[in-house]
Write a structure and sequence with these properties.
The complex is a heterotetramer, with two copies of chain A (131 residues) and two copies of chain B (94 residues).
Chain A (H helix, E strand, L loop, with lengths): L2 E4 L5 H8 L6 E8 L7 E6 L1 H19 L1 E9 L1 E4 L3 E9 L2 H18 L2 E7 L2 E4 L3
Helix pairs in contact in A: 2-3
Chain B lengths: L1 E6 L4 H4 L2 E5 L8 H9 L6 H4 L11 E4 L2 E3 L14 E5 L6
Parallel strand pairs in B: 1-5
Antiparallel strand pairs in B: 1-2, 3-4, 3-5
The chains are: A alpha+beta (131), B alpha+beta (94).
């Protein structure tokens, strides 16, 4: 399944190995992680059906635009600690430019379009992140 | 007419996670009319989603049956029984 | 050790986990793999000391230029099969733009500067790759 | 004077992997002179690395004690006993 919104973490090495095809020369992985900006934990919530559909549309666009051979997107939800994976994108393509281009495109589109939100839990309360 | 309205992120804290909204469909029966009628039952919070003139606030995002709807088109989107509408603030995933 | 030229494969998941720092928000991985362009096997050779030094200089430049928090570069040598990893770059940074920028910079510089060569083994002979 | 000259990739197939080259240092004793003198002992293959005018071919890459040397500077680089020189064709890593 190329798009998953899930509480569970994933095995990136396994995603890479399973992505491989004979015509592939480049794999690019983006792993967005919880950065310590003075936060205690971060809580991610999503409109799961809506976000899945938006991301599937983004992926379909990217596959055509960048001639991608494989795409996996895993967006996590739930309460996460500093250092935990939030978003993992694994792109396989014939050549490096396509793989980088596709990965950055999917990432930027997810950030602006997918109905997913972050709430930062601080020592003294919490706040919604609005980008 | 029965529709489902889902709210997300900080809107959940105001309007709840989701509501089944039952109403008498008027002549226009647009998405904007229906969500407006629902939000008017929270008079103190109506301004979070709508302007005084009854337009969606310019940060509000809308999905109708999993399709993104432009705010400016929300008055033209006709609803059918069982439709699902999602109303949410700017996203922050990734 | 941030730069390694080696016959051995690496565990990418372990490299990612070991790279993580509290101030890190993005990790980008490039994995260059042997593509089947009608080849049987590919043989990589290197001027190991020269290539290590060149890549270390490239990494030091990139760290400054893109404000990188961690860099690992593993370039493999020896005889490799289709689908095998050739070059693995793991970059950690505060933000995604830095991580992508640093990863692409290091990759392009390695391709033009590091004394490493490929020889393609075909069904009926072999040929040096000259880019 | 004793220097080590290393050859890589297809140059290895011509000149071997590495050679200890012992010679009488002349007045200039430049990197270009030394590598030129060594390669001249392979008259049929000299042209792989040098032009007829004794300049490095424009695809040849050079390292001197692990530092990259510009072809045009190779006549100005003085050698010392024990120096290591690497001569190689265009790279193709990554």
């Amino acid at each position: 399944m190329p798009v998953r919104i899930t509480k569970d973490d994933v095995d990136i090495a396994k995603l890479i190995e399973e992505s491989k095809k004979e015509s592939m020369g480049a794999i690019v992985v983006f792993d967005g992680i919880v950065r310590n900006d003075g936060i205690d934990k971060i809580e991610l919530s999503a409109y799961i059906e809506g976000a899945t559909k938006e991301i599937e549309e983004i992926v379909a666009d990217a596959e055509k635009k960048f001639n991608l051979l494989s795409v996996e997107v895993i967006h996590r939800i739930g309460v996460l600690d500093v250092g935990d994976n939030i978003l993992i994108i694994v792109i396989g393509a014939g050549h490096r430019k396509e793989a980088f281009g596709g990965c950055e495109y999917i990432l930027e589109e997810i950030k602006t379009r997918a109905p997913i939100w972050k709430k930062e839990h601080l020592k003294d309360g919490s706040r919604w992140v609005e980008q | 007419m029965k529709i489902k309205i889902k709210f997300f992120a900080r809107f959940t804290e105001i309007f709840g996670k989701e509501a089944i909204f039952e109403y008498e469909a008027g002549e226009t029966n647009s998405l904007k009319d229906a969500v407006g009628a629902f939000c008017r039952s929270y008079p103190e919070k109506y301004g979070e989603v709508f302007t005084r003139d009854g337009e969606f606030q310019d940060y509000v995002l809308i999905m109708h049956n999993l399709e993104r709807i432009d705010r400016d088109d929300a008055g033209a989107v006709k609803l059918a029984d069982g439709d699902e509408i999602a109303i949410y603030p700017p996203v922050a995933g990734g």
